[in-house]
Predict the structure.
Amino acid sequence: MKTSVLPIAILLILIASCKSYNTKQVINNGSDNPLVANDTVTISSDETDYEIIIIEPGFNGWLLSTARPRGYYTQNWLENRNDLLVQAWNQRNLQPFTYDPNLYELRIDYDPRTDYGYEVNYKLYNYFIYFQLKYKQQLTGFIPRI
């Protein structure tokens, strides 16, 4: 009797733990759903094989309405600033007990010797500005402002 109770108990636990999941994600532009279709920004360049995907609610709207226009910064300036910001980000990523690990979840693989193109550098830099302003963080000695 004891040998038949264990498999039945395991079977009941497995059945109870099963849950039906809806794999279809609905995205609407209403105020009741914070995820808006435009909140995912994919940055890629036809000339390069590099891509950045930013999933941050509100970033795309901020980029279109608040950020400096394309061409305001030179690519060299953006690359230099991104190098500093990525280093600071990755340092915080390595210190989850000092900095909120929910903010710095992923390490950014950015090589300053690689030409990522203007668009990638422009959006990466603006994401850092948006991130610092939204979450009240200061990654470097430069005060984030527009």
